[in-house]
Structure formats: C-alpha cells, structure tokens
Write a structure and sequence with these properties.
Number of strands: 2
Shape: globular
Low-confidence stretches: 137-145, 147-155
Structural class: mainly alpha
Strand order of the largest sheet: 1-2
Strand content: under 5%
Number of helices: 4
Largest sheet: 2 strands, antiparallel
Length: about 160
C-alpha cells in the first residue's frame, strides 16, 4: 500500500469511529450542544462517504465499520458527552494531518478542509483552541478515535 492509501484508510476508520461516537454524544448531550452534535454527525457521515471513495480512487478496498467501538471513557452525562465531542474531533484532525502530509492534489485539499473543519468543531466543543490542530493533540498519549470491539463492549 502507498502511504496515501494507508492514511486514507486511517481517515476512513476515524470517520467510522466518529460517526459511532456522535451517536453516543447525541444521546447524552444537553440542548445547548444538540445542534453541534447533529451538525458533526452529518459532517462525519459525509466525510466517511468521501473517504470511502478516496480509498477506492487510490486502488484500495474501503474498510467497513466495526460493529461497535470502545469509547475512550464512559459517557454518562452531558459534560462527558461534550468532552467526547472534543476528543473525537481532535483525533479526526490528527488522521487528516497525516493525510495532508502523504497526499497531493484534490485529496490533499480535501484532507486540509477536513482537518480545518475538525479543528473548528473541536474548538466549539472544547471552548478553546490549540496552536497546531491535528498535531498538538499527539503530544498526549492517545489511540484512535475509538477502538473496534465486539458486541459485548458496546456502550
């Protein structure tokens, strides 16, 4: 696989995880953040579909979504739902930073747009920004947006 294809597959996986995560966010978030949750869910569904096309365009077979994902922490109330929204966006920004680095042309431009959009949503969830969205978040130890898991691990 090429580096661009690997990065596109990683972006697709992050989008699958974000779509799943926003299902959880939407179920727990307060009314003040409900619109942002719906907007983010729709945006990640659209990006997921675009990344599936990009993977195919690069000669790969798009990875399917997992049946369930393990969240980075329990989401039990509105505050933890808001925190999950910020984490999802920060992690998505990171995979798009990789895709910007490894791609060119239209794919690179689309990845840069996705990075920017995720960074803006992260600011809206977090209430503040970071110096280099998609890069600064990597200083802290973290894994992918969510990890695939079996049905017993559903949240």
């Amino acid at each position: 696989m090429t580096r661009a294809l690997d990065a596109a597959q990683a972006a697709l996986a992050a989008e699958h995880a974000a779509v799943y995560g926003y299902g959880v966010v939407g179920a727990r978030v307060d009314e003040a953040h409900a619109g942002l949750a719906r907007e983010a869910y729709d945006a990640h569904r659209a990006r997921r579909d675009a990344m599936s096309r990009a993977v195919r365009d690069l000669g790969g077979t798009p990875e399917a979504a997992a049946a369930a994902y393990t969240l980075p922490f329990p989401v039990t109330d509105a505050a933890s739902a808001v925190r999950l929204g910020a984490v999802l966006e920060s992690r998505v920004a990171g995979v798009y930073a990789d895709l910007v680095e490894t791609s060119s042309g239209t794919l690179r431009r689309d990845a840069a747009d996705a990075l920017r959009d995720a960074a803006v949503r992260a600011v809206r969830w977090r209430g503040g920004s970071v110096a280099f969205p998609g890069l600064a978040e990597r200083a802290a130890p973290s894994g992918p947006a969510a990890s695939p898991s079996g049905p017993a691990d559903r949240h």
